[in-house]
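Me: I keep going back and forth on a fold encoding question. No explanation is needed for now; the record alone will do.

Assistant:
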Amino acid sequence: MTTLLEAALCYAKSGLPVFPVKADKTPLTPHGFKDSTRDADTIHKWWAENPGAGIGVPMGSVSGLVVLDVDPRHGGDDSLEALLEEHGLLPRGPVAKTGGGGEHRYFAHPGGNVPPAHGFRPGLDLQGDGSYVVAPPSPHASGNTYEWVVPLVGGPRPPMLPGWLLRAAPAPAAPRQFGTDTDGRIPHGRRHDYLISLAASVVSRTPGITEAQALAIVKPAMYAASDDDRWPSRDRDIETAVRSALGKFGRPAPPSNSTRSDTGADPVHTPEAGSAGTPPGPSAPADRRVESPTTPPSDVLPGFPATGPLIGEPPPMWSAEGAWVHAGAVWRVLQEEHFCSLPDTREILRYERGVYNGFAEAFIESWVERQFQIRSASAKKNHRNEVVNAVRAATFVHRETFNRPGLVNLVNGVYDLGKGERRDHDPEKDRFTYRIPVAYDNDADPAPFLAWLAEVQPEPENRTLIQEMVGYCLSPGNELQTMFFHVGEGANGKSTFLSVLAELLGTASCSHEPPQTISENRFSVAELYGKLANIAADIPLQTLTKTDKLKSLTGGDYVRAEKKNKQPFKFVNGAKLVFSGQRLPAVKRIDGAFKRRVLVIEWPVFIPLERRDSFLVPRLCKSLPGILNWALEGRHRLWERGRFAPGETVRRATEDWLKRSASLEWFVQEEVVRDPDEWVLKDEFYARYAEFCEANGVPEAMTKQEVGAEIVRIVPGIRPHRPQVEGRREKAWRGLRFRYGGSSQSGLQGPGTSDGQKRLDAEGGGQRTDGDPDGPGGSTDGARPARPGQNASPKNSGTASGRNNEKLALEPGRAGRTTPDPEDVFAGRATRADGARAALERSDEGGVVAAPPDLEIDAAYADLIPILDAQGPGVWDRDVTRTRLRTAHSAGAVSGAFGRLMGLGKSYVGEDGREHYRPGGWPERLPFRGRE
């Protein structure tokens, strides 16, 4: 018969710490189970002092064991039956009969902290961390002894504690959780709480975790939820928190189910253990609550080691229906497959044929069901979830380790752009979320594709740029900060080209978000993650009101992404932005950063219907290996140069679109001059702007409110002004004037001469009499002096300084104004027109720059008068007139001629809201355009 001392030594040799207890389970050591040991000398001393002492074994991570204590005297059998009906049978493992008639069922500790749960069901206790049990052959206070039904030493290994049993026991008080705010950031003032909570959670839930492993999980999570510039000591604080958590909550790795001793021996399954006097248990009776394995563990996992911890070697895995060890399942699936988990979103990715995809959880669940035939639906779900969560915790990597620039992931390997060579895939070294579905073949020829491209893009410079653009798309990254817009009316080849590009990169490697959606929809940016290109064809003409996201996506900045009902995350975009349309949308605000990033490629050729091929894309895609070589050549050339070098056609198309998109800036550049002494009515300014947009084909003019908000940015130094015009206070902009005439007004002048007057006087055309109410231009009682040149003689009205001084007095009798003879005015204009035509002819003959704007407008105005005179008085057709003038004059000159016409009172807006023309003479009153 095995003595208590021999049994205690046997347990200690098997790796279990022991301590002596009384028959009533009271410890005989000063500190109870905390004094437990595996030291043989100490054990000899204890039992020499108390030969009849029972054997106490501590539970939890210190021994790697958890015990389910069933007490039938308090309904334990019925409670266990109810749990088994709900969750399925228990796995086979060691069982001891207690001295009180109950039983102890031994399980392997699952890791982390498993607190004891006393009475979680009637007659059921769970003995975990911080508790202990009495082991056979210890005496009981009733006079009975503890006996093994299924021995722990020499019998089956303890199975892993089922997850459903752990969940059935009441959980300890949950540690305080500190979450992030709605955008995934740590709320202000909560960094320390969040860090301590996260570090403690990671360490306590992962027994055996090292400092490096804990940092690999905690650091990325804290990086994703905090700003470096607001937390300069972040790295140091994270390391301190992890070390503190390891000291407070760290647990050793669960011992293998072999329960090895300190010497590395495994007496539980060795002859030495049995010879040491392990108390053999009686033959175990059939237990209807436990399913036995149909095959021994060595047959379940052929070729797998039978012992060892989770990290390195697997613990056993039982292939009974519903009875198996999850740690072994995790070990096996990690040996068979490659997984990576992202700490910010907790998404698991699985490696398959050179690429990590997002279907890992479904794969693991399917794998679990294939490996184990689990009958209970709830048990099946529990097992799947536990394996998924364990795989996730064991495979965290930062998302920045994916999709390294400079590498091209292909079907038959990875092409290193720096070395110019291909190598085989390596799932540990190369983490890609994309794959180009083309095999590298150095001898492949792109001739069919190049012949087609030469037909639809006849300019060699454009083809070179397109080649470099395709090469730029092969590898993730936006080093050159460029986005591409392809434009052209239908049936010109651009859609075919983009289809071939998408096939080359792979449909799974491309997203298709229009620029407006990217700018406005908060979920669209997430679609670009892990892609090579965002290719959006036929983008809408809706005005692009925001460009910040487009600039961030192409600028190498971190961008925030979010998928619906999922955790947001941050990443640096590597997808190239490629858009196309028959026409391009207007852009509300264009700054230097946006201009710098844009290239517009025109597709000028129209393919007639009889030459169109519905199967052209599949035919061209037969040359994809050759197109890949062509693109690699373009990429190497691009990298040697270090930038894109667009030809004249692309530069002109880009400038034209940006100019038409930034319509207000274009208008100011063409039509407005800064002048601190002048002011322009806001209504007239907007009317001239709208007319300019219409004349120049601007797709969508800005609203009056938008113009008011933007003009102060475009023309620094201007300010609102409220001049009195015709007895009313009007709204105006002070600090600018029209370049080609109009109703610009000089500001109030004190004693002295204005800059405009000085210019006019220098040319001999200015006359001014300060303080003389009867003199030309005079004023009294603080009335506004006449604008410089208002009283100039007609012969001087053609001077350069007089282009904004031609709004003569229209109301006879008003102080300080005179009414000139219209015939003299028009005679002077005829003289100016002749000079303008002569200057234009000289500039054409000499091949020099065009004539000055004043002369251009004079010539356009001289041609405009006969056209209007031929139409007669009344409403005149502005569109027809503009079309006729545009055949011989620039858009700016035509616009200036119309402005001058109205400034002189020959054109005015009538009560019907339409524009009228009155040949000869002046109208009695000139309504200001746009004023109600």
About this structure: Residues 822-846 form the longest helix (25 residues). Residues 351 and 366 are 16 Å apart (CA to CA).
